[in-house]
Amino acid sequence: MRHHLVVLAALVAACSSSTTPHAGPRLRSCTDAKGAAVTPSPSFAVLVFTRTAAYVHASIPDGVAALHALGGVTGFSVEETSDRGRFTDAGLAPYRAIVFLSTTGDVLDDAQQGAFQRWLAAGHGWVGIHSASDTEYDWPWYQSMLGAHFAGHPAIQKATVRVVDATQLSTRPLPSTIARTDEWYNFNQQPAGAHLLVTVDESSYQGGTMGATHPMSWMKEFEGGRVWYTAMGHTSESYAEIPFLEHLRGGVLWAAGMDTLTTCPL
User: By the number of CB atoms within 10 A of the CB, which of 21, 45, 237, 250 ranks highest?
Assistant: First the structure.
């Protein structure tokens, strides 16, 4: 009997260790004059929305953990929810930025859409990651906000991304080209009214359909708010890549209107 209990305890421990919540990547904090890590106090709040009504990306927990880690070393708090009931005027009021992290399908009803529109118009910022462009096809306002939508992808493979504007907060820390593995989205059009930040070189992989200018990340000001999008982030491994995390952090800070917040390299 005792032997069976020991075996059972070992199995429980093994199962527990395999389902431990994602701890997120280990990131460098700023340091003081003595070299000690400095943990900044949160100066603004970010809501990470993860609702899916179609395909569910296995990397969503990795993205949530990475955003928590970025907030911890940068100075913003992160709250994650898949509950669309949070999209009311009062429910969105505490947040300077909302991240749609690999959302899919029809995620908000009419009243919730209205609350989100009012929130953005009040001077806040939206961040879209990966399949945020595979979301709300039947909501014209959302499609206008984003500027383009998902139109398919080839198999996951390595490709070369190129920084188009190296002066923007989300591209400033990046090298001019990066070879990385991801799921490379094609879009229905070039993003309308947007400023292009990053492209993918179609000669470096198979399956691109957009030609010489294949958008991967863009930004725009829209109806009083800020909009920033990256098509990258399909894989779990993306959320441990420092260049991609620098890219995300810059997008969140810009969307939140916190461009001047002091940061240190990750």
Answer: 250
CA 155 to chain centre: 21
What is the greatest pairwise CA distance in the chain? 70
Q: What is the pTM of this model?
A: 0.90
Helix/strand/coil for 186? coil
Any domain includes 196: no
Does the residue 100 lie in any domain?
Answer: yes
Number of Cα atoms under 13 Å in the Cβ half of residue 11: 6
Tokens 């070879």 correspond to 179
Q: Examine residue 138 and state whether it is found in any structural domain, yes or no.
A: yes
Structural domains counted in the chain: 1
pLDDT tens series, the chain, 266 aa: 434 433 333 333 333 333 335 678 988 777 777 778 887 888 999 999 999 999 999 999 999 999 999 999 999 999 999 999 999 999 999 999 999 999 999 999 999 999 999 999 999 999 999 999 999 999 999 999 999 999 999 999 999 999 999 999 999 999 999 999 999 999 999 999 999 999 999 999 999 999 999 999 999 999 999 999 999 999 999 999 999 999 999 999 999 999 888 888 99
Instruction: Calculate helix-pair angle for 60-74, 242-255, nearest 10 degrees.
Output: 70
DSSP state of 21: P
Domain limits for position 62: 29-147+216-255
Report if residue 140 sits inside a domain.
yes
CATH at 240: 3.40.50.880
Please answer whether residues 190 and 217 qualify as being in contact, where contact means their C-beta atoms are separated by less than 8 angstroms: no
